[in-house]
Design a protein that fits this description.
Shape: globular
CATH superfamily: Response regulator
Helix content: 40-55%
CATH topology: Rossmann fold
Strand order of the largest sheet: 2-1-3-4-5
Structural class: alpha/beta
CATH class: Alpha Beta
Radius of gyration: 13 Å
Strand content: 15-25%
Length: 125
Amino acid sequence: MTGNKKVLVAEDSSVIINLTKNVLMFENYDIVAVKNGKQVLDRLAVEDFDMILMDINMPVMDGIECTKAVRALEDKQKANIPIVAITGNYKNYTMDDFKKAGLNDYIQKPLDYDLLLATVKKHLS
């Protein structure tokens, strides 16, 4: 048994973090939450994750910039981690924009938690 899958949630809204944690922990995922892209990179430097849920609009370093930084990491396993965008401003971006940044998928806000869970399972199966 390899243990639970670890999901890094990058989101500046405490409400969304708590709801996401509750949904995913109910399915036995281990969740670590951070508030900005710089914190994502700091955590990735010292910890392994199976997936990142990445808010696009965050302070300090946004989700697009952070995703590009993750994709540029020397550690190929970490550089290729599945990253799913979470955004309320999806109309400002096309799926092509997300793909160019290195994002694997996206979920729009307000979050549909059934879709969130299905998307996480899709990328972690």
